[in-house]
Amino acid sequence: MAMASLARRKAYVFARKISSSPSDAALRYSLSLTSFSRGFASGSEDNDVVVIGGGPGGYVAAIKAAQLGLKTTCIEKRGTLGGTCLNVGCIPSKALLHSSHMYHEAQHSFASHGVKLSSVEVDLPAMMAQKDKAVGNLTRGIEGLFKKNKVTYVKGYGKFVSPTEVSVDTLDGGNTVVNGKNIIVATGSDVKSLPGITIDEKRIVSSTGALALSEIPKRLVVIGAGYIGLEMGSVWGRLGSQVTVVEFASDIVPTMDGEVRKQFQRMLEKQKMKFMLKTKVAGVDTSGDGVKLTLEPASGGDQTTLEADVVLVSAGRTPFAAGLGLDKIGVETDKMGRILVNEKFATNVPSVYAIGDVIPGPMLAHKAEEDGVACVEFIAGKHGHVDYDKVPGVVYTHPEVAYVGKTEEQVKELGIEYRVGKFPFLANSRAKAIDDADGIVKIVADKETDKILGVHIMAPNAGELIHEAVLAINYGAASEDIARVCHAHPTMSEALKEAAMATYDKPIHI
């Protein structure tokens, strides 16, 4: 099947397709605001665009607005740009995932490659220093981009005075009012708390605390089997912790394709990560030296106890809008505090917009970035484009799991006749050559048209491999389109080609 024409595939209409339930039609939003930074303008003059929040959505929106010729100010409360993602999320976690993987490889894999070491040990302070260095360089890099693009940067916590004015309590103890013809709320999300569990960031930690532990816990309990919990569990498990994951649901990572999820869980169990699914945390006792959790079956039943040195609460995230003053200017929100927006990210109040984690859709940094660009393009009179059904997701464990589009379960539920093509990395030349061949590529395609509906990859660097599939799905490609593209040999990407061949015809190497 030939690929559709560019004009047919890409009419620049904003196609915000929300894969979650209709009740998620409201948006909730979060706040990251700011005070004057030395060397930047005050931001007191009228702006075309004011962005509240300097995370991935906010700082990208600010830069894009400035590039489009709009006078722009960005307000950020943290004192450093990049939001949760850069400061205490995506970036530091990936730094620790990489460092801990190197240690694990040195312990378990180097010898089979002919590299012998007399001993290997962890220098945790050095590992943390490397993480902090990466974060510091990147946050300063964004400040540099603000200067380059002439974005005014105000450090402090802001709240609406009117639909076109934001009062900012600056980090240096002062106050200023920032005016804007258009104001974008991009304040991100915060850790979701659990009833009866108090996070102290020492023995009971959020992801923030898990990124800054001063010593390796002997026993780590992770509450929640989503992206963050599995990634942080992997970090400390590689460094020597006994990791137990407690999950209320019957499966890990519920957004993942069922078949891939089962293989993924088996891989994590091979790495000595233990899972207690369908299990509820009924109580937490911190009166002793460690932490004692009281557990019970999710459906009810006899209670048991589980002891830990550190407990990571990783039950998801919630949009953050505290103190913004949305009610004072009449911005509509749902009962959970999410901001309601239309297809152009506009709220019911003229001049006020919202993007990122405060609106429905995946709570992902790259989704927020796309929101930011599209929102500013609409403000500038252009056309934005974001399709939430085509946003990739990645779990950065080893192997990684990456996916885009629909799962087989979702396609089945929609009543679409489909075909599935799979190819294991055990049959991939590059994976065998580097002795890292655990994983699979799975493609789900429409049976009649061969149009790709979903792609799921479990493999080393799956987060890089997925983007060929993201591009294919965005341009309406068929599995045959991927199969007939020449892929370099030997590469891991050939597994995607072979899975595509298996979808519409037959693979060669299995």
TrEMBL record:
It is found in: Mitochondrion. The keyword Mitochondrion applies. Its EC number is 1.8.1.4. This is Dihydrolipoyl dehydrogenase. Disulfide bonds join C85-C90. One of its GO terms (cellular component) is oxoglutarate dehydrogenase complex. It comes from Tripterygium wilfordii. Residues 391-500 form the Pyridine nucleotide-disulphide oxidoreductase dimerisation domain. The active site is a redox-active disulfide bond.
